[in-house]
Amino acid sequence: AKVRRYRWEVTYELQSPDCLEKLVIAINGRTPGPTIMAQQGDTVIVEVKNGLLTENTAIHWHGIRQIGTPWSDGTEGVTQCPILPGETFIYKFVVDRPGTYIYHAHYGMQRSAGLYGSIHVSLPDGISEPFAYDYDRNIVLNDWWHKTTHEQAAGLSSIPFVWVKEPQSLLINGRGWFNCSQAGTAVCNSTNPQCSPFVLTVVPGKTYRLRISSLASLSAFNFEIEGHNMTVVETDGHYVEPFVVKNLNIYSGETYSVLVVADQEPSRNYWAALNVVSRKPDTPTGLAIFNYYPNHPRRRPPTAPPAGPLWNDTEYRLNQSLKIRARRGYVYPPPTTTDRVITLLNTQNRIDGHTRWAVNNISFTLPHTPYLIALKHKLHHTFSQSAPPETYDRANYDIFKQAANPNATYSDAVYRLKFNSTVDIILQNANSMVPNNSETHPWHLHGHDFWVLGHGPGVFDPVNDPLRKYNLVDPIMKNTVAVHPYGWTAIRFVADNPGVWAFHCHIESHFFMGMGIVFEEGVERVGRLPAAIMGCGDSHHLRRH
Ligand code: C2O
Ligand code: CU
Fold first, then answer.
1. What ipTM did this prediction achieve?
2. Where does the record place the Plastocyanin-like domain (predicted)?
């Protein structure tokens, strides 16, 4: 195994990802940042210099479990104090499994400002993937706003609430296109070389592995390459029993590998189209060019880009979720029984005039002292010591009605899990505060992969749904999974990774508005914490030791 070293500086830069000039957060001058390329078993060392001058930061390695290095998870407030302006923090961790992962800021809403990128972990020499392809390509998807993330965050926490609204454009590998005639007084230049669609050049007859990931702040996406099918073979670092789709639904925090054969009429180019689903779209289709060599890469395809499935066809998306199974020969069966079931009702609430998201009526807030330090050093006064609720009042709650939930509160309490125990989580969706509206929430678990036991519509039935709808035979393992509108998703994991781990909705504004919880397991087994993660809250005096 090798050591892969990266030296990064995080800075604000003026860039025009969708033609309109805006301050973005870049790594070594670029957004998306550099792709981390490593082999299974390698140690990755990333030296992050915070060059933001007036803002803290932290970077999370999404999908990397951080076994033995919980302090390198990069989750500000959970596993570390923020990296202060001018400071350098060294992340060091082992990439123990092959696959496609991502990284991104885990501080405020900085991810939305462009601080993100990809991690590709290849197999050790001499071992090959269970599928064949000629070339490997990276596709990072994102949604983009022209307002600064500070303005967005201020609106979200204001009374009255100011919603961020739908994105102005969709980015494919950091490129989008905004109609400059609508730019008002902003600097917008459609002849700027940055302002041109991403081009994926393919050689006729060849097979491409596209590693597609979504860093969306808000949107659920549907990705389609005009005229080409895609065979899904990997998700979140796990092999999928291959299935063919015309277009792929992908939620924030998910990664997929798909195989695409350049098998269409080669005398022209084709569109790769990114459409918003699940929310009523108010953003033009994001476009890239699927360029058949040797056609000119800028030559526009002669046809209209795919419009994607109906945005409100929840069943279509649920069915695609249900197709994702572990690949034969690569099935890790889950424990057949569980030690604990935690049911989490996802609601939108108003607390003291603020619009918030809550689980079981509790809206999450981060403490000043990161949990990992507080729990390891028994600084129990630094966060609520009460046990958060295991379920909600199912008999008296109508998930199809606008949430009333007058009793929602703020809390920073954590779920403490018995080390090595098996835990089931039922994520129960509900109506938001808008009548006849329920959103898609992609939930992401730090420090683990979980088995996706099932998805279903309506209210989870604790007797019948596990019997009829749980897949205990070949469930896929993932780190991020969607909870569909008015539906439920059940997952299972083993609490075998000593540390403190966030579990939250990957929509940037939803987590910011309280949609998350934190798990602790085996913290007494965690080794000596590095002083570099300390310094904030009540951990300032620990830093010297
Ligand atoms: Cu990719 Cu806690 O998130
Ligand atoms: Cu959400």
1. 0.98
2. 10-122, 139-294, 400-522
